[in-house]
Design brief:
The complex is a heterodimer of chains A (215) and B (255). With 215 residues, chain A is mostly helical. Chain A has a single domain, classed as MetI-like fold (Orthogonal Bundle). Chain A has helices spanning 3-42, 47-62, 65-75, 85-110, 114-122, 127-157, 169-180, 183-214. Chain B has helices spanning 45-52, 76-88, 105-117, 121-134, 150-162, 180-195, 207-213, 231-236, 241-254, and strands at 7-16, 19-29, 34-38, 60-65, 68-69, 90-93, 168-172, 199-203, 216-221, 224-229. Chain B has a 6-stranded mixed β-sheet with strand order 6-7-8-3-9-10, with helices on both faces. The complex binds adenosine-5'-diphosphate and magnesium ion (MG). Residues 16, 19, 21, 39, 41-47 of chain B line the site of adenosine-5'-diphosphate.
Chain lengths: 215, 255
């Protein structure tokens, strides 16, 4: 193994890892927003809205994220959507992970005991009040861990944007392989940095989860 | 004109798909009365009780409380406001307590009054202390539900319902989920309410309790009221064969 080479190139990989972190944070934020909207839609009292929510979830979970990304980035200009690669990556992957997060959030919400909402309603709380004050706080506790699983998957899925030439970790590794012909070292280095990002994130999620449980 | 009954159920009918759970039930409860509903499991007792505050809406029929129709057909928005108003006047106690586990005992009691009656924190605290004292749970005011026994949980649940100052209390097998040694403390609280002339409708399996506390007993079976009357009559001299069978089985089971 060429350790000298690794030591020489790793600062550039660190820079690329920062882009991966940025992509992860932005896609996860967008995903949380889309997820909340999707979950709300799927739990709506209007059948039309529920249908829209279900369509969103099944389209984005039922097709490869890479196809969705290509559709947006390469297909977009054809219908008047012109995005730079980074923006397309954030939007495409954010909406994609949002579909998974919608299911996670919905699952947590419906697994709160029905009697909780009922007890709140019998006291005279409105649907919205019962949800906000009783169901949601309990669902939040249940959703942190599974959302952590979604986030873990999403961090790794940012590698997909290398296919539309966003200079993040995976793309950087490929570029250095082109000039060094050392795929083993380059992919190992990239992998180690992904592992570092995911380990830190996982610890953060576990910390949050413990914290809400103690309350 | 005669005064309308305090609680009136008119021709209540309810089906789940092809299963008819309530079959044309009519009954009235006067202010201050304490009524027990007994009957085999699956006979529709919970469904009837939950229809009173429209938690399980009837398929047809009317529910009236103090001169107002609870399940009035209104456009959605108006209905929501109406039913929230009505429910504030009706306290409900569940078999499994349904305390809010993320809130302390104090917060369980004060949440609804604070949200719905816009009382200050200080008033809310005073209210919580008063209601919890009433059910003998004042010293646990800052505990979480998970730190309480079943009997204590149910007493807090009663305090939570009473904090809304309801006109009517509904109990759906309030002691059925409790260990036998914890039943009495909850019964004591319910007896206390009875002495204070709270109007109560109590679904129960405890015949002794029903006999000692209630003014009237309603025996339900398969979605109909088979027999009703004062406890002495229903328990000692039931006129219906089905009532006799139920009581016989039940008393054997209790021994
Ligand atoms: N949500 C529901 N969907 C379908 N059937 C129900 C539902 N709730 C209750 N039932 C049925 O209605 C009947 C009466 O139930 P319930 O009122 O709970 O009886 P009880 O309280 O007397 O035991 C039972 O046969 C029960 O299975
Ligand atoms: Mg029942």
């Amino acid at each position: 193994m060429d350790t000298e080479l690794i030591l020489k190139v790793y600062p550039y990989f660190l820079e690329a890892a920062l882009i991966t972190v940025e992509l992860s944070v932005l896609t996860v934020l967008l995903g949380l927003i889309c997820g909340a909207l999707g979950a709300a839609a799927r739990l709506s009292r209007f059948a039309e809205v529920r249908f829209l929510g279900a369509a969103y979830v099944s389209f984005f979970r039922g097709t490869p994220a890479l196809i969705q990304l290509f559709l947006l980035y390469f297909g977009g200009p054809q219908i008047g959507i012109q995005l730079d690669a980074f923006t397309a990556g954030v939007i495409g992957l954010g909406i994609n992970i949002g579909a998974y997060m919608a299911e996670t959030m919905r699952g947590a919400i419906i697994s709160v005991d029905r009697g909780q909402g009922e007890a709140a309603r019998t006291l005279g709380l409105s649907r919205a009040q019962a949800f906000r004050k009783v169901v949601l706080p309990q669902a939040m506790r249940l959703m942190i861990r599974p959302l952590g699983v979604n986030i873990n998957a999403q961090i790794k899925a940012t590698a997909l944007v290398s296919a539309i030439s966003v200079v993040e970790l995976t793309y950087t590794a490929q570029r250095y392989i082109g000039s060094t012909y050392k795929p083993f070292e380059m992919f190992l280095l990239a992998g180690a940095l992904y592992l570092a990002i995911i380990t830190v994130t996982g610890k953060g999620v576990a910390f949050l989860d413990r914290k809400v449980r103690l309350q | 004109m005669t005064k309308p009954p305090f609680v009136e159920i008119r021709h209540a009918q309810k089906s789940y798909g092809s299963l008819e759970v309530l079959k044309d039930i009519s009954l009235t409860v006067e202010r201050g009365q304490i009524v027990a509903i007994i009957g085999p499991s699956g006979s529709g007792k919970s469904t009837l009780l939950r229809a009173i505050n429209d938690l399980d809406p009837l398929s047809s029929g009317e529910v009236w409380l103090d001169g107002v129709q609870v399940n009035e057909a209104l456009p959605h928005r108006q209905y929501e406001k109406h039913i929230n108003d009505m429910r504030q006047q009706v306290g409900m106690v569940f078999q499994h307590f349904n305390l809010f586990p993320h809130l302390t005992v104090r917060q369980n009691v004060t949440m609804a009054p604070k949200l719905l009656k816009k009382i200050s924190d200080k008033e809310a605290d005073a209210l919580a202390e008063e209601q919890l004292d009433h059910v003998g749970m004042l010293e646990r005011i800052d505990y979480y539900p998970s730190q309480l026994s079943g009997g204590q949980k149910q007493r807090v649940a009663i305090a939570r319902a009473l904090a809304m100052k309801p006109k009517l209390m509904l109990f759906d097998e309030a002691t059925s989920a409790l260990d036998p040694e914890l039943v009495e403390e909850v019964n004591q609280v319910m007896k206390k309410l009875a002495e204070e002339h709270m109007t109560m409708i109590i679904v129960t399996h405890e015949m002794d309790f029903a006999a000692s506390v209630c003014d009237r007993v309603i025996f339900m079976d398969k979605g109909v009221v088979v027999e009703e009357g004062p406890p002495d009559l229903v328990f000692r001299n039931p006129t219906q064969e089905r009532t006799r069978n139920f009581l016989r089985k039940h008393l054997e089971g209790a021994k």
